[in-house]
Every structure is written in C-alpha cells, then in structure tokens.
From TrEMBL:
Compositional bias (Acidic residues): 134-145
InterPro entries per UniProt: MAM33, MAM33_sf
The protein, known as: Mitochondrial glycoprotein
SUPFAM superfamilies, sorted: Mitochondrial glycoprotein MAM33-like (SSF54529)
One GO CC term, this protein: mitochondrial matrix
Region: Disordered, residue numbers: 131-154
Superkingdom, taxonomy of origin: Eukaryota
UniProt source species: Anisodus acutangulus
Signal peptide interval: none
Entry-linked PANTHER family: COMPLEMENT COMPONENT 1, MITOCHONDRIAL GLYCOPROTEIN FAMILY PROTEIN
Amino acid sequence: MAVTNIIRRTASQVVPFAVRVVGRTQNYRHQSSALFSTVVNRSATSRNFFRNSTPSTFHCYSTKKASSDESLLKVIQAEILCAEESDEQDEVEEVPEGFPFKIEDNPGQQTVRLTRGYQGESIDVEVHMPDLVTGDEDENDNDADGSERANQSQIPLVVRVSKNNGPSLEFGLTAFADEIAIDTLSIKDANVAEDQIAYEGPDFSDLDENLQKAFHKYLEIRGIKPSTTNFLHEYMINKDGKEYVMWLKNLKKFIEA
C-alpha cells in the first residue's frame, strides 16, 4: 500500500515535468523557426538591397556622362548661333564686275583657287586664310622702314605663271589693304627631280629696286592688283566664318552620335 502511494506521487510529479519539457521544446522550436525566418527575410532583404543599389551606381555614372554631353551640346549650339549671326553681318558682296579670275572654292578646304589664262599663259593663284589683326594699333610698333604692315590684316597668296607645261614662275605674296608685297620669287621646273635642290635666286628684297618694280607691274598686268586682293581679303574672312560654322556642326554631330 505504501509502495503504491509512492509510485502515484512520483508519476504525478514526472508527468507535469514532462509536459513542461515538451512545451518548452515546442516553444523553442517555434521561436527557432521564427528566428530562422527573420534571418532569412533579412538576408533576402539585404540581397534585394544590394541588387537594387548596385545598378543605381552605374545608372548614376551614365546619367553624369549624358548630362556632361548635353551641357557640351548646349555650348556648341550657342556658339553655332553666335557664329551664324556674325556671318550674316559679314556677308561678302558678290564678285565684282570685271574680276579677272575664276574662283574655285571647295567647302572644308583651307584655301581658294583662282585660275585664268593670259596670252598663252596659265595663271594659278592659291589664296590662304587671312591673318587678322584686331585691337588698337601701336603707333610705335613699326618695322625698320617705318611701315605699319605689322599692324594690318593680311592674306598670303602663291601665284604661279606657267607656259606650255614648261617651267613656271612662282611668287609668294602677302596682300595688305591697297598694297601687295612680293616675299619670294623662284623658277619651278617640273622636269627637275624632287631630290635635287634648285637655285631659287636671291631674296626678292635684295634685287635691284627697278627690277622689283618691274615684277610688281608684271603681276598687276596679269590681274594681281590691290582691287583684286582687297576683294579676296573680304571673301576669305567670310569663308573663314563659314568653315568655322561647318566645323562646329561636325563636332555637334559627333557628340550626338
């Protein structure tokens, strides 16, 4: 009888303890499952954040590059409009009546070519872009002869006079306002090999003064005179402006491509 009571008391103590243990175990499992879910969710959130944030870095870089290009395009377009307005104001007059040369002007090139025939001669003139002088002239900034050429706008020219595909005379000129200076004079022979160095004569300024005047007259008769070069000066200034606008538009096309 005493033994039976002991067994019953022991059982009554063991059963509640077992229930508490099982409950705690289930609760632990529930908490563990919830904790695991939280960790997984946070991990997924972290991965999603990384996925979302990583492309945005490249997107930001791309946006900055695009923004930089757009700013450059705006500046170029503003410069185009300014240059076009300037061209409209500086529009050159039509070729004057009696102009002795045919003008060959190809867009995109630095030079303009003039051609004409004169008493069996072929005259070819290469006109270069003007060397412009802006600002106030310094009265003391003259050369040794007291000339003011250093303060004047000018255009370089190369004049070739040839006969029957033989040797030709080549003049290097600088045209100022109402004045033409002969810088060089040489004889060019097409039959002379390129590796041969031909004698080109003395400096033109070292020639006898009468000989210098005679060559100036020689060119004047063939159409190289101040009335011709003054028009060419205005023509080349206008060409310089047009070429600049074309250059800007080509830049714009490249940036936009």
